[in-house]
Known about the structure:
It is built from one helix and 25 strands. The protein is mostly beta strands. It folds into two domains: 1-161, no CATH class; 170-259, no CATH class. A hairpin with a 7-residue loop joins strand 22 (213-220) and strand 23. It is globular, with a radius of gyration of 21 Å.
Amino acid sequence: xxxxxxxxxxxxxxxxxxxxxxxxxxxxxxxxxxxxxxxxxxxxxxxxxxxxxxxxxxxxxxxxxxxxxxxxxxxxxxxxxxxxxxxxxxxxxxxxxxxxxxxxxxxxxxxxxxxxxxxxxxxxxxxxxxxxxxxxxxxxxxxxxxxxxxxxxxxxxxxxxxxxxxxxxxxxxxxxxxxxxxxxxxxxxxxxxxxxxxxxxxxxxxxxxxxxxxxxxxxxxxxxxxxxxxxxxxxxxxxxxxxxxxxxxxxxxxxxxxx
Length: 259
């Protein structure tokens, strides 16, 4: 194993089988991890667990877990699965490829870039940006900003008041009727900022049937800006979400489905 190494630790390409290795802890400074595996590795699984505190670069890693502190994760081309934050305000710049990243306990920034990514903000007021590709995005707890980018994305704010922006493509926004997600007032509800019927966007409702739904026309002002027309989706007196610049008729007509 390697412990407390300063600078960088490299595991180069090799054709020799390796049963296991442990990278227990790097230095307290800005560390660099490079993991390279051959195109046809002579093993059936490679699942190193890596704890890193500081600036971390990785290539071909299968599992990276941060320690406390404000960490920066920078992926490269390839499928980096998964990258997990911890305490501190972490930044994930995943690079191209179908990546998986999970934020930690504080306010993190996750950017999937190109590829079909799975990103979860977890706890804290996070910013989650899928980038290009058909991404699955979840804000987690607290008040998050989620941006799908180009592609057909699945976007869920989860608990807290979240702002959901699909971007280009036919996106699906998830609204849930449960104690953690529904809001008592419109001012606390999730907001879908760019719902587009022309782009074939949809709203997926969880825990509410069509018979439970009512629609309320409201004027919505965000961050001190001017008020715009919006539609609040309600179930049993609770607000599931608010959709900007779309009429209740258009939502009820063709844009909702229930699971």
